[in-house]
Amino acid sequence: QSALTQPASVSGSPGQSITISCTGTTSDIGTYNYVSWYQQHPGRAPKLLISEVSYRPSGVSNRFSGSKSGVTASLTISGLQAEDEAKYFCSSWTSSSTLEWVFGGGTQLTVL
Amino acid sequence: QVQLAQSGGEVKKPGASVKVSCKASGYTFNVYYLHWVRQAPGQGLEWMAWINPNTGGTEYAHKFQGRVTVTRDTSISSAYLDLSGLRSDDTAVYYCARGGQGRQGPIAYWGQGTLVTVSS
Questions:
Q1: How far apart are CA B89 and CA B36, in angstroms?
Q2: Chain A contacts of B64, Cβ < 8 Å?
Q3: Is pLDDT of B28 > 90?
Q4: Cα nearest neighbour of B42 on chain A
Q5: How many angstroms separate the CA of residue B62 from the nearest CA in chain A?
Q6: For the purposes of burial, counting CB atoms within 10 Å of the CB of A1, is it exposed (0-12), middle (13-18) or buried (19 or more)?
Q7: Residue ranges with strand state E in chain A
Q8: SS3 annotation, A66-90
Q9: pLDDT score recorded for residue A2
Q10: Sheet containing A18-23, strands listed edge to edge, beginning at the edge strand earlier in sequence
């Protein structure tokens, strides 16, 4: 059981927008702005899309955006493209036991 | 460019130990935290540990304490993950990944992963 809760799957048609939620607790997302989002294609290492809730690293498409409200973070992908079909993971810094990072279980995005 | 090159796949028997290496290049090794994250087949990501390459200081996820040791050799810009008492549920791809200059910095760069298979 992952520390952060994500929906198992979401889907959308090309050109549409989708949002993936990531729910934590007051020990992680609710307290810290160290929330990241990753994209992972099959057989590949994860790729950082968003850090510190909403910061987009250089080279990441502006179709990806992040936000946070309370204990829930969200990743929005606009203008869906076929290449966006992948698994998406959220992560957060946590102080629940040791000082460490926790991940969500991942959300499979299907582009219809 | 930042690169993290990991050692090759391993097959181990239950109860054995495994050591995975990670050689960094393209940046100043001592400046950025290194993390170890694993992913069981078809499963999510699981953070295991971080090391401060400058001081050698480490932090381990509670689940792995007593079984995992992370070390580094600054002379060759490399870090190592030692996992002992292997069980079948330790079968996973193990990633080293570069974090930020502080322990809360984003995990931004990932190695290619090392598949460790535990089987009798």
A1: 17
A2: none
A3: yes
A4: A42
A5: 7
A6: exposed
A7: 9-12, 18-23, 35-40, 47-50, 64-69, 72-77, 86-94, 100-103, 107-111
A8: EEEECCEEEEEECCCCHHHCEEEEE
A9: 61
A10: A18-23, A72-77, A64-69
Strands B109-110 and B92-98: antiparallel
Which residue shows structure tokens 């520390």? A3
- Residue B74 φ/ψ, nearest 5 degrees: -65, -25
Give the closest of A34, A46, A47 to B45, CB-based. Answer: A46
| Cα Rg, chain A, nearest whole Å | 13
Is residue B64 over pLDDT 60? yes
Instruction: Please indicate whether, in this complex, the C-beta atoms of B44 and A101 are within 8 angstroms of each other.
Output: no
DSSP B59: E
CA separation for the pair B82, B72 (Å, rounded): 11
* CA torsion, ordered A76, A15, B110, A106, to nearest 10 deg: 60
- Residues in chain B closer than 8 A to A57 (CB atoms): 106, 108
CA distance B10 to chain A (A): 17
pLDDT tens, B2-16? 999 999 999 999 999
State how far residue A92 is from chain B, nearest Cα, in angstroms: 9
**What confidence tens digit (pLDDT) does each residue in A92-110 have?**
998 877 668 999 999 999 9
Q: What is the pLDDT of residues A59-72, one digit of tens each?
A: 999 999 999 999 99
Phi-psi region of A28 (alpha: psi -120 to 50; beta: other; left: phi over 0): alpha
